[in-house]
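Agenda item 2: cytidine-5'-diphosphate complex prediction
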Amino acid sequence: MPAMVSELQNGHRSADNRTEDSYAVKRMQIEQQRRSLPIASAEKRLVEEVRKNDTLIVVGETGSGKTTQLPQYLMKAGFSDGGKVIGVTQPRRVAAVTVAKRVAEECGVELGKKVGYSIRFDDTTSNLTRIKYMTDGLLLREALLDPYLSRYSVIIVDEAHERTVQTDVLLGLLKHVKLLRSKSSNGVPNANNLDPKNNFLLGNKNTAEDGSLIQRCNSAKLSPLKIIIMSASLDARVFSEYFGGAKAVHIQGRQYPVDIYYTLQPETDYLDAALITIFQIHFKEYAGDILVFLTGQEEIESVERFIREKLQQLPEESRKLLPVPIYASLPYEKQMQVFKPAPNGVRKVILATNIAETSVTIPGIKYVIDPGLVKAKTYNAKTGVESLVIVQTSKAQALQRRGRAGRDGPGKCYRLYPEIEFLKLPDSTVPEIKRCNLANVILQLKALGVDDIIGFDFIDKPSRMAIVKSLEQLYLLGAITDEYKLSDPVGIQMARLPLDPMYSKALILANEFNCLEEMLITVAMLSVESIFYAPRDKLQESRASAKSFSDPEGDHVTLINVFRGAIDYLRKSEPESSEQKTEKKLRKWCKDNFIDSRSLKHARDIHSQIQRHVQQMGFSISSCGEDMIPFRKCLAASFFLNAAEKQPDGTYRALSSSQVNVQIHPSSVLFRKRPDCIIFNELVRTNSNYIRTITRIDPMWLIEVAPQYFALQS
Ligand code: CDP
Ligand code: MG
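Presented output:
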């Protein structure tokens, strides 16, 4: 065999040949897979339609190849020539990352070169990037700096059917940018309310560079912007109407039949029912992976634990079941696990949030278990309270979930509720913009130069009351003036920070209270989920460890203690070591202290990025030292809208106009102490209203730091 001979003669060359061979095989496999996708036969037609139409709607079932293929077709057809970028927005960070990786692989390029992704706190793109996957929120932020989105020749708004707030705002913005661009290509400066001269953030007086951007945009003749809206829901009408009767193209899907099973009775404990179903499938059904839809990280973790425990009790040969979690805050490396095939003879059971409904396509699924629930935001416009609640899915969601079982062959879908319940479900989900706090959206729009929020051309208008309530909140935070304009400098600074308005306000105030160091850590730690972790077999130790960090005044300082504990450890052990070594040491420290190392790493990354932001804004980072009172006062001044007071019965009542009754979540260090007056960061509604991340404050501070609000109350 010639290959063997050459291997003996020249080890090096043959090793190279082998890698080349396997590379070629892989490329061939990828090419074949690409060609077999339903969208492949529509390539020519799609490219033509994009040429002909400035706005196009592309509808196709999940998995037909829209997200991964269409940008590649357009690149091949020359849409990214001349240094232009094809931008693809995703509502979810995970989707932006996984898809970019996949497409880079399909193109045979290194991620970050021709194909890259950019999400908040993580940008892998470069000047070479021609296809850029990003979150819709990120593109909105880019529009602040470049109102014409001049680098883009095409913008694909993907997963538009999800109708997240950011998608809806982006659609509105794109409508305006399109107008700007078509006017600019005629050399006519725009006269729109998105006039870049109105753009507050661009009004960065210190940098000539930003000023020149406007110049460049105005003088350059930009080609019209191509807008493509992609959706997995068959109803393209709403998008078509919004874009003045834009054309819709349907991609023929390929879906195998999926049998549906319902329970006879409503389930009292859907997690238990899901577990029973998982093992029933595992024991009785043919090979094929299982996908279970759960509502969040905690639920997923507990189901995973139960599966592992149960497997331990089974005989060796029955243990071939591998639980794999996927949810938004799971670190990327872990998320990638769901795409890896299980070892031979092992059945994967993927425990997912509704992230797996349409955003990511996982091959190999034959069985879907759908308890029919989803965690969703709700907003009470009267009280101004936004909370996360578990609600029933819509019919459209149930159909999408079922579809996940029929991608590679016929499948089965187990709905953990009776058939009669299905018939009662609403047809489709209410767009998020109609059930969330709008403060963030308003801040963004104002920064983009849109002053008339009520008059803004939303695809679905939020209620007037919701807008007014959110405006009121921004006013109370000092972000807007009496004339509803973005205030200078607070409002402008708040819009500049990629954070929730209240967190941005906390950083700005911390600058005044001389506790910016502490607040930066707090905001970073609040931006990640679950810092502490408590393995079942080591509950005592993990509790003791958590206690060692806890601060008597509350959870915020406790989080700071954890963050600083890690830094101190690194400093003491070996101050100057390589990044790799640092990571390893950090992981060890986390393990010893029952801290989730991935969450902490994420928090450290976020910390350094926000730190850069505030430094660019000219803030100097000072610490309040040992005395935490200024820090707690600063918390009161920033989160006064989330202040609560103890009632005689030991529960709490929110002091804001909402006056809702709340309870301290058992995870808080103040759970037992129950101080008289507190501020909190999060309200979670399960069977009762739980508040999380809490700090004790002095009620007098509230009058001192927010007299306009608390004077009104009395
Ligand atoms: O966007 P759409 O749901 O129409 O499909 P897609 O995300 O472009 O996926 C097309 C194909 O690529 C599917 O068969 C996926 O299994 C595959 N894919 C993959 O293998 N890995 C990814 N990270 C994303 C997609
Ligand atoms: Mg897709």
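Discussion summary: The pocket of magnesium ion (ligand 2) is lined by residues 66-67, 158 (CB under 6 Å).
Owner for follow-up: CH.
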